[in-house]
Every structure is written in C-alpha cells, then in structure tokens.
Amino acid sequence: MSFFREWGKFMMMGARAHARWEIDVSNTILGDKKRLIILGLLTVPIIWGGIAFAEQIGTALPELLGGKKAYSPAFYSTGIFIVSILIGLGAGLITGCIGAGGGFIIAPALMSAGIKGILAVGTDLFHIFAKAIMGSVIHRKLGNVSVPLAVVFLIGAIIGATFGGLINRVLYEINPVLSDAFITTIYSLMLGFLGIYAMTDFLKARKADKGDAPHGGGDAHGGKVEGAEMGNLPKKLQAMKIPPMIRFDAEIIPGGRSISWVFLVLSGALVGLAAGIMGVGGGFLTFPIFVYMLGVSSMTTVGTDIFQIVFTAGYAAISQYAIYGFIFYTLAMGMLLGSLIGIQIGAMVTKVVPGITIRGFYAMAVLAGFVNRIFALPAKLGEMDVIPIANETGVVLESIGVWAFFIVIGGFSVWVIGTFLANIGVLKGEEGRP
C-alpha cells in the first residue's frame, strides 16, 4: 500500500509539473502577436489541405511518407477534425482548471474516435512538439538549465525514444490490433495508478475539509520538495562515483552536487521510452525523476524539463513517426487550437471554484480514461484469440468504455465552460484590479 501511494504521488507530481509547462506555453503563444500569426500561417494551410485533398494526398504519396497503408483504417474526415478540436479543448480545460496533465486523455480519446493507436501516439507527439516550438519559453528559464545535465539526459532520451518508436512500429507491422492492445495496456496501467491515487487523495481531502481554497489542488509535494533536502535514494545515487560525474546546482547549493552520467542516461532512456510509446512527451516523468530520484533542485529541474520536452518530443515525432506516415498533422493542429482555448478558460475558472471540487473532477476524468482503455482491451485480445470472448460482448464493453469516457469528459467540459460564462462578470472584475 505504501508503494502504491508513493508511485501515485510520484505520477501526480509529474502530471502537475507537465501541466505548469502547458499553461506557461499557452500563455506565451496567446500573449504574443507574432506567435499567433505564425500559428495562423501554420494552421490554415494544414487544415485547408487536409479537408480539400485528404483522399488525393493519401493515394499520391508513397507508403513510407504516409500512404493509405500507414493511415488505414483511420481515414481523415471533417468530423474527425472537429473531434480533434473538442479533444484538445477537453484536455486544455483539465490542464488549466486542475493544474494537472490533461494530455493523458488525448491518445485514449483519439483511439476512441477511431484513430489507430500508433497514429494517436504519433499525432500527440507532434502536437506537443508544435506547441513546444511555437510557445517555447526556454529563454525565460535558461538561467535554471544545467546544460551538462540536459545534454547527458538527452543522450538517454534519444535512445529510449528510438526504442519506444521501434516497439510501436514493429508491433503495428506484426498486427495493428496487437499495437492497439499494447498501447491500450500501457495507458490502462498508468491511468489506473494515477486515477485511484487521485480519487483517494480527493476523498481524504474532502473528509479533512481542506478544500476551501479556489484552486486545483496545489503542488503534489506541497511546495516543499526543492531538492535541497534529499531523500535516501538520491543520496545513495549521488554517492556512487562512476565517472564522469556531472555537476549541477552550483548556483543554488554551495559547492553544488554531482551524479554519475550512468543514472542520467538511464533516466533519459526511461523518459524517452515513455514518450516514444505513449506520445506524451515524457515531461510528466522528468520532474519526479529529477527531484525524487536524482536529487536535482526544483528550479533546475523545471528549466531542464522544458529543454528536454522540445528535443525529446521533436526527435520522437519526426524520426519515429512522421517519416513513416504515422501522424495526422491536421488533427494535431486541431488539438493544439482546442487546448490553447481550453487552458485559458480552465485557468480562469479556478478563481471561482473550490479546489476540492476541481480535484474530484480530475479523479473522475482520469478514472474515466482508465475505464475507457480497460474496457477496450477485451475486444482487442479476443480479436487476436488471446482470450475467448464473443465479438458482440467485446463491442458492447468497448462501447461502454467509450460512452463513459466521453460522458465524463464532456460533462466536465460543459460544467467548466458553463461556470466560466456564468462568472464572466466576476472574472472581469478580478482582471481589472491592480
């Protein structure tokens, strides 16, 4: 039980760190006219091209660059594009309102909308990469980036992302259903751990009646974990002097600290593997790994996390998915547009809604994602003759998961937008205060 709670806490810490990055990026893009113009210049031709020439492009390009074989059986349509905007909107509302990773629902949502798992992963990675490039805030954080730390970490991240992308592609070539089942299993495990922890945390908070503050639950570590006070694991790892040693935090802690390159490469490989397989950029793992396991200060971790997301997501998206045709660029831009709007609305709603309510919604959203994926698994295993299950039963279970997921996410989205519209006057009043 203690292990389960610590693992859940570990993942929640990462989810909130990744959400802070998403919110910062959204504010940077929408607060800069030049970036908005670039976004428009990128979005319009991609959307127009996708709507007008989807069928022609699919047959004209070779299979390596995204022909029908690569996209099959998930074909592009205007309806799917609209769904991608709504998915991005829902993820953005969760991220902005709750301050935890709404990006976890993107791949399951795309798969529920009929997109093959490998395409959902590739598209999600490209969406993260595009967001990171257009809203890059690295220049703000450069003072907190340890370049040696980041470079060695990225060596491992590139290795891990390559391996993760290779696993997905090999499984897809063997059997697209096997690929979907693998990605579905990974998401089921992750969302199950995170959702149960979030719900347990919510129930305890409600019982203690500590949810009066109108914000989405705060930091997973209560703002106390700064890396200055290390646990036993970081101390043990830093005591293992396997050369070369990478020095960091010299500006924060007298004399700084150092850790062997081996642990940085292994950590980067784990983050890259997660990015390559799940399409979440790996950012949700970097923060807890650096702070909990390696003993890096939160300030240095934030800067390095931003740095690695750009390169890890970019490398994985382009080298492991784009050149093989496993990205829907139109859907990626639709999700980007939806998430930018959703994050802004969600962040404003936190000013007028009790934090305990928001935490409850987050637990429900993550558990809905878990139910969605775990209910989709029997049909896929049955299709591969792994378990004996009637086709009709598998379809019914999958439908239950899809409906449960979209009802919860849709209900949450309607509630947030409704709350926002009902409190526009109050929110304008708050913005007008000096």
DSSP helix count?
17
**What would the average pLDDT be, to the nearest integer?**
78
Strand order of the largest sheet: 1-2
Report the radius of gyration as a whole number of Å.
21 Å
**How much helix is in the residues?**
over 70%
Name the overall outline. globular
First-to-last CA distance: 48 Å
Largest sheet: 2 strands, antiparallel
Helix and strand run: HHHHHHHHHHEEHHHHHHH
Descriptive report:
The protein is mainly α. The protein has one domain. The chain has a two-stranded antiparallel ribbon. Helix 6 packs across helix 13, helix 9 packs antiparallel against helix 15 and helix 14 packs across helix 16. The longest helix is centred in the middle third of the chain and has 33 residues.
Helix/strand layout:
Blueprint: H1 2-30, H2 33-60, H3 68-71, H4 78-98, H5 106-112, H6 117-134, H7 138-141, H8 147-174, H9 176-208, H10 232-239, E1 245-248, E2 257-260, H11 261-278, H12 283-294, H13 298-321, H14 329-349, H15 355-383, H16 391-422, H17 424-431
Antiparallel strand pairs: 1-2
Summary of the model, kept short:
With 434 residues, this protein is mainly α. Helices cover 75% and strands 2% of the residues.
Keywords:
single chain; mainly alpha; two-stranded antiparallel sheet; 2% strand; 434 residues
